[in-house]
Amino acid sequence: MSTRQKRESRFSGFIVPCLCAAILGYFAYHAQTGRYSIHTKTEMHEEKLRLKSVLAELTHEREQLQRRVDQLTVGSLEKDALDEAARSQLGLSAPGELVILYNPI
User: Fold this and answer.
1) What is the separation of C-alpha 78 from the centre of its chain, rounded to a whole number of angstroms?
2) CA-to-CA distance for 95 and 105, rounded, in angstroms?
3) Three-state SS string across 75-104, please?
């Protein structure tokens, strides 16, 4: 009967700990430098604030445009006020009219 004996290497006990350390290092590296890392949290917060201000500006502009549209609905404007608004915004005039441009400073 023969038995085989294997001599244990000095490095065989270090394989699993080294592998675990490498995996831990990988995740630590990406926690510092990745897309959703610790440092990009402040950048994302600044971007959020900037986008909120843009949203507020666009909402305000939309409300102003909606008010202008509401003023042009039937019954809210007289015929002459509608004519005046169309002439001033489109730059139209009748053939016999005199147009005086006034630019207040």
Assistant:
1) 42
2) 29
3) CCCCHHHHHHHHHHHHCCCCCCCCCCCCCC
pTM for this entry: 0.47
User: What Å distances lie between residue 41 and 24, 32, 37, 55, 70, CA to CA?
Assistant: 22, 11, 7, 21, 43
Residue with structure tokens 């290497």?
Answer: 9
| Degrees to nearest 5, angle at CA 50 with 46 and 56 | 145
Domain boundaries, the chain: 16-89
* 96, two tokens: 């016999």
Could you read off the pLDDT of 1-13 as tens digits, one per residue? 667 777 777 777 7
88 is written with which tokens?
Answer: 């001033």
pLDDT tens for each residue of 14-59: 889 999 999 999 999 988 888 888 888 888 899 999 999 999 999 9
Residue 87's identity, in one-letter code, is R
